[in-house]
């Protein structure tokens, strides 16, 4: 999840995120989905802002590529906050065994 500066125009959010996501593509990863939620009120003030533009990014990449993406996002002044979450792998359904007779 990325929270961007509310002073940005919402139409420029997707192209600027695409610039950062080139790190993932060049590192052999894949971007599954970019979901821009738009301008939302923050739970608490961050950098004297009460609002931010939220974007959720689903991607698959090696840990070092994700760390580099997070580093570049953190260095950008238009990014207020980032949060990287690793989703658990999908579990295989359990097959019920019949008791031995």
Folded structure, characterized:
By secondary structure, the protein is an alpha+beta fold. The protein has one domain (2-82): Alpha-Beta Plaits, CATH 3.30.70.60. 27% of the residues lie in helices and 36% in strands. It is built from two helices and four strands. A four-stranded antiparallel beta sheet has the order 2-3-1-4, with helices on one face. Helix 1 packs antiparallel against helix 2. It is extended and about 65 Å long. The N and C termini lie far apart (53 Å). The mean pLDDT is 85.
Question: Main traits of this protein?
Answer:
101 residues; alpha+beta; Alpha-Beta Plaits; 4-stranded antiparallel β-sheet; 36% strand
Write a short abstract of this structure.
This protein has 101 residues and is of the alpha+beta class.
Topology:
Layout: E1 2-4, H1 13-26, E2 30-46, E3 49-60, H2 63-75, E4 79-82
Antiparallel strand pairs: 1-3, 1-4, 2-3
If classified by CATH, what would the architecture be?
Answer: 2-Layer Sandwich
The CATH topology comes to Alpha-Beta Plaits
Poorly predicted ranges: none
Q: Could you report the average pLDDT, rounded to the nearest whole number?
A: 85
Order of helices and strands: EHEEHE
What is the overall silhouette? Answer: extended
Report helical residue fraction: 25-40%
Tally of separate helices: 2
CATH superfamily heading: Ribosomal protein S6/Translation elongation factor EF1B
Structural class: alpha+beta
Largest sheet: 4 strands, antiparallel
**Secondary structure tally: strands:** 4
CATH classification, class level: Alpha Beta
Radius of gyration: 18 Å
